[in-house]
Amino acid sequence: MSQYVLDQTWEGEKERLESIAALTDPATVRYLEALGVKEGWRCAEVGAGAGSIARWLCEHVGASGRVVAVDIDTRFIEMLDYSNLEVRRQNIVSEPLEEGLYDLVHVKILLLHLREREQVLQQLVAALRPGGTLLVEESDIRSIQTCYPPSPLLSKSGAAIASLFERGGVDSAYGLKLLPAVAKTGLKNLGSDCQLSAIQCGSPQSITLSLTLEHLSSKIIQMGLMSQQEVEAALQALRQPSETMIYTPITVSVWGQRA
Ligand SMILES: C[S@@+](CC[C@H](N)C(=O)[O-])C[C@H]1O[C@@H](n2cnc3c(N)ncnc32)[C@H](O)[C@@H]1O
Fold first, then answer.
1. Ligand 1 centre from 150 Cα, in Å?
2. Which ligand 1 atom sits closest to the C-alpha of 2?
3. What is the band of 114 on the pLDDT scale with cuts at 50, 70, 90?
4. Least-confidence region, from 4-8, 59-63, 195-199, 214-218
5. What are the tens digits of pLDDT across the range 170-179?
6. 188 burial level (CB within 10 Å; 0-12, 13-18, 19+)
7. Can you spell out the DSSP letters for 181-203?
8. 48 alpha carbon to ligand 1 midpoint, in Å?
9. Keywords on this record (predicted)?
10. Is CATH 3.40.50.300 correct for 13-257?
11. How many angstroms separate the Cα of 11 from the Cα of each of 57, 133, 161, 206, 214?
């Protein structure tokens, strides 16, 4: 069974999840609006993290709708206070959603972490009612090795994060494979898009990268992927305002409808 590589008890995890949401939610909201989320919809938000999209869904499906927010760590979604929200502490690999029930199932930056990603994708599709919509958004994290002016240190830290993830069963290129994977499930009316930002080191947007490196730093050092001095220098380079531009992970978004 999949083991989530990131340690949820890490003190900075809420801030890290919020920074991922700040970077990726604007596009997610655009897709959700275009997909027509409306009052009365029954939605599932899987791997809900800090809960920003669960909150958006609760506010858009109204009192007649329902939002089921699932995560193996529900500390942050439990802080949300909506009468139409149901929080479930649930491992989506071993405890699938109910079949044939949901108008919308949304999942973002989760499947790449799961060895059973294709099986889970099938289960998410099975959870849709006929005509229901799946929106799945997954990253290709290889892009974080690219910066300008070139920095061997930042490229090394990006490669170390990808390598550590891969050793833990993460598919760091899953974003690129997402559309064919969703097409295989038989969903109709497929669409896709992707988001990639070039961000400046030291800007508020670069915090996701520095927090992820900080979070993984002891494992990266233990595995000999970088020395302690290199990790410290890379963290400083990511946090200190400079002219250096670095790519975020590419987030690929795919949607489709159950026949
Ligand atoms: C990278 S975060 C993404 C959070 C959120 N979807 C977002 O994009 O901001 C992945 C989330 O999935 C949760 N998670 C990891 N493995 C899971 C599993 N097997 N079942 C349910 N949730 C899981 C983690 O606890 C974490 O909150």
1. 32
2. 19
3. very high
4. 4-8
5. 999 999 999 9
6. exposed
7. HHHHTT-EEEEEEEE--EEETTS
8. 6
9. Methyltransferase, Transferase
10. no
11. 27, 35, 19, 19, 11
